[in-house]
Every structure is written in C-alpha cells, then in structure tokens.
Amino acid sequence: MISVPKGTKDVLPQDSYKWQYVENAARGIAREFNIKEIRTPVFEHTELFARGVGETTDVVTKEMYTFEDKGGRSVTLKPEGTAGAVRLFIENGLANSPLPLKAFYIAPCYRYERPQAGRLREFHQFGIEVFGSAEPEADAEVISAASLFLDRLGIKDVALEINSIGCGSCRAEYNKALKEYFAPRLGEMCPTCKERFDKNPLRMLDCKEEACKAICAGAPKILDHLCPDCRAHFEKVKSLLGALGIKYTVNPDIVRGLDYYTRTVFEFVSTSIGAQGTVCGGGRYDNLIEELGGAKTPAIGFAAGLERLLLLMENTGIEIPPAGTPDIYIAGMDEASRLKAFRIAGELRAQGICAECDKMARSVKAQLKFADKIGAKYVAVIGENELANGECAIKRMSTGESEQVGSGIFPPI
Ligand code: HAM
Questions:
Q1: Closest ligand 1 atom, residue 308 Cα
Q2: For residue 80, which atom of ligand 1 is closest to its CA?
Q3: Is residue 185 part of a domain?
Q4: Domain presence at residue 352
Q5: Whole-model pTM?
Q6: What CATH number does residue 151 fall under?
Q7: Would you list the DSSP string of 126-189?
Q8: Worst-scoring range by mean pLDDT, 2-16, 80-94, 193-207?
Q9: What is the tens place of the pLDDT at every residue in 187-203?
Q10: According to the model, what pLDDT value does residue 390 have?
Q11: Centroid of ligand 1 to alpha carbon of 280 (angstroms)
Q12: Is there a domain that residue 262 lies in?
C-alpha cells in the first residue's frame, strides 16, 4: 500500500464541500473588494524565494522543497504566495496598470516542517496582495478584507494583533539597540540566533527555542524605535481600523517569519487550534518589489491558511451547509425501462437537473435503497406500465408524497 506523503492530506468526496464553502467565501470577499485572481506556478526559481522571503528565515534555511530539474536548474515548490505574486507583477509590467493593483490567489504551498495539528507540508493559502499604495488606507482595507472573510465564515474565536516593524531607517537604529541587548547574552542563545545576530538581529525575535524566547522577552521593542513617519503611519492605520469598527490589540512582539516586511504587520490568532494558532498573517512590504528587480512600489497583503481555518471551524462547532444531493433518482426494472431511465436522466441533466440512475445492475429495491443513501430528493420508478402509458409517479422523499407526471415533465426541483 502506498500512502499519502507525510504532512499532506487528501480531500475526500464527502468533505470537499467544506473546502468549496471556504473558497467560495474567499472569492466573494475578492469580488466585493474588487480584487482579481492571479495564478502563478507551483514551482519557481529557487532564487526568487531566497531573495524574496529572506536568507535568514526558517522558511528559506530549513523548510523549502528545493530540487534540481532535469535541465540542472534549481527550482523550489512555493513556500508562500507573495514572492510569486511580486514576480508576476514585475515580469508582466503591471506597474503600468491603474494602481493600486489588487490581486488574490488560492493556492497550495509547501514547507518541510514537522507536521502537527494545523501544520502541514502541503497546505493551502487564500492570499490578497495590493500593489502600489503606501497609504495607511491600503493597510486598513487589506486588514478589513481578512476580517470580513473570517466573519463570513462565522469565525468568532479569533483576535487581531497588529504591530509596526518600521522602515529601513528606524530598523537600522533598532538593530543597533538589539545588538547592544543581545551581545552580552549571546553565549546562552542557540547557534541559529548567533548566526542571525550578525546577519539580521530582528529575526532572533522569531526564535522558537525556549532559552532564546526567554531572553527575547526582555529585548527592546521596535515600537519604541519607530521614526516619526512610521509612527504617524501606524497611528493612522489604528485610527482607520477604529473607524471601520475592527477590534485589535497592539502586540509589539509580532515580527513575522518572513524578511520582506516593513511597517504594519498583523496576525489573526485563535486559541482553539493548539500551538499553530495563527490562521492569517500579513503586512506591508514596501521594498520587496524593488529588491526583486522592479521599480520601487509599496505593497501590502495577507494570507490565510485554509487547513487552519477548517480546523478552527470544526473545533468551534461552526456548521458548514452540506453539499447538494441529487435532485432525482430514476430507477428501472427490466432492460427496456432501464434504458428509458437512462435516457430520462440524460434529458434532465441537459436541463441542468442533477439526475442519477443505475449503473450497478441492481434490483429495483436495491436501487431505491441506494437513492435513499445518496439523498436523492425525488425518486421515480419506470416499469412496464410506465413505459406503456408514458407516465410515472415521482415521489418526494422528504414527505413521501407522490405525483403522476408525463415522462420528462417533472415538477420544478
Ligand atoms: P505566513 O504567516 O508564513 O505568511 O503564512 C500565512 C498563513 O499560512 C499562516 O497564518 C497559516 O494559516 C498558513 N500556514 C503557514 N504555514 C503553514 C503550514 N505549515 N501548515 C498549515 N498552514 C500554514 C505568508 O505566507 C505571507 N506570504 C503572507 C503575506 C501575504 N504577507 C503579505 N502578503
């Protein structure tokens, strides 16, 4: 028996309606916010993520599915959606389209992580990216799209946390303060933190080691080191969120796990799905487009993990309306009536009605049992009499009531 690879999951026929429900909600939000869909390849040149996501991140150093293709190129399964979206934006000259440009995607992502509840090696993201606006209104709109999406799904057990991690100039000051703080404590920290101390001290704040976490708790906070422009931007974002009635708390410890962020960062966090409680995360990335070879273009976005959302909905008892069942099952008795049933089913389908008939050579009794199991709303049985007089009874399964109709003329379903 070959099993599904570790950290991946099948979606079974009886469960796919749940995925469709969440994806439809995502598409509904995109429509209301006037956001167009983009699709990028599942794999990209490795360099895109190394440069885009950041050489000091866990994602790039430990978690990428990277391999050489038969042409000797290093390619990587996308660990997230932003870098590919930015590549698409630059490569297709979309900076010349009316800005801001708003794009969304629903796509699989791959990270070689240790699987646990809510953490997979293949997972799916619904992401929104807004290119071209440096204004706080873009931040607030993106956050409000995430908030409305979670609302639509009926998710209440989630809290919005926001922070600002500043721009290049305040970050330089902050890095200095971090280095001063960490230098005398470096001996007690993990090898990765020691490496990050030189390359990117901010990333040390993202360490998962208990000893390092304890030291990080006392580190200087970025919010105390913001430049006046970044401070004003953050204040405006907060006031716009207030104006939209979106509740949030400021969490000065959010730094996010990817290197491209500037200014606003945010996460929607739940306590109902265990350790992996972040269902949605995002922020501004004003330098990434330039860093990847485009013209300097500010941008902001978020991504929500669909598996975590479904887990959260299940754990908090949110019922997803079940998928549609067949409108009608048409049973046949002998060869001639079976053929008739088969043809009626075909005609009904052509009219947009979901019709089923036997393909298992079952007896009428077994066909009716099957019709009941698959939840058919109506059942019709074609026999000798029905064939002779061109009429049959159709039975509404929920009430047991029957009605006599001419073949092909069924009541509106
Ligand atoms: P991220 O925080 O790395 O951000 O991932 C976003 C969401 O993807 C997480 O909040 C989580 O729900 C889900 N996720 C991440 N890793 C896993 C995993 N191993 N298993 C299951 N779900 C997972 C980004 O990816 C950014 N690109 C978001 C963004 C868009 N920022 C700006 N624009």
A1: 12
A2: 25
A3: no
A4: yes
A5: 0.94
A6: 3.30.930.10
A7: EEEEEES--SHHHHHHHHHHHHHHHHHTT--S-EEEEEE---HHHHHHHHHHHHHHHGGGGGGS
A8: 193-207
A9: 999 999 999 999 999 99
A10: 85
A11: 7
A12: yes
> Is residue 148 located within the same domain as residue 291?
yes
- By mean pLDDT, which of 79-93, 132-146, 267-281, 383-397 is the weakest? 383-397
Q: Are residues 268 and 332 in the same domain?
A: no
| Residue 180 belongs to a domain | no
Do residues 163 and 278 both lie within one domain? Answer: yes
Do 24 and 125 lie in a common domain? yes
> Ligand 1, closest atom to CA 282?
31
Nearest CA to ligand 1 atom 2: 281
pLDDT in tens, 377-393: 999 999 999 888 888 98
Whether 410 shows a pLDDT value over 70: the answer reads no
DSSP per-residue letters across 278-344: EEEEEEE-SSHHHHTTS----EEEEEEEHHHHHHHHHHTTPPPPPPP--SEEEEE-SHHHHHHHHHH
Pocket test for ligand 1, best of 9, 109, 203, 269 (most atoms within 8 A of CB): 109
For residue 25, what are the domain limits? 16-167+227-315
Q: Tell me, in angstroms, the distance from the centre of ligand 1 to residue 125's CA.
A: 7
357: CATH: 3.40.50.800
Q: Nearest CA to 75 among 45, 54, 47?
A: 45
Domain boundary, last residue among 280, 315, 350: 315
Mutate to test the pocket of ligand 1, among 6, 80, 203, 280 (most ligand atoms within 8 A of CB): 80
Distances (CA, A) of 289 to 26, 78, 93, 258: 25, 17, 12, 15
- Ligand 1 atom closest to residue 121's alpha carbon, by position in its atom list: 19
CA distance 44 to 80: 11
Q: For the chain, how many structural domains are there in total?
A: 2
Counting ligand 1 atoms within 8 A of each CB, the residue from 44, 123, 139, 267 with the most, and so the one to mutate, is 123
Which of 42-56, 186-200, 201-215, 397-411 shows the lowest mean pLDDT across its residues? 397-411
AA letter at 309: L
Q: Are residues 248 and 386 in the same domain?
A: no
| Domain boundary pick from 291, 315, 339 | 315
Q: Which residues have CB under 6 Å of ligand 1?
A: 80-82, 111, 113, 118-120, 123, 125, 127, 129, 257-258, 278-283, 301-305, 307-308
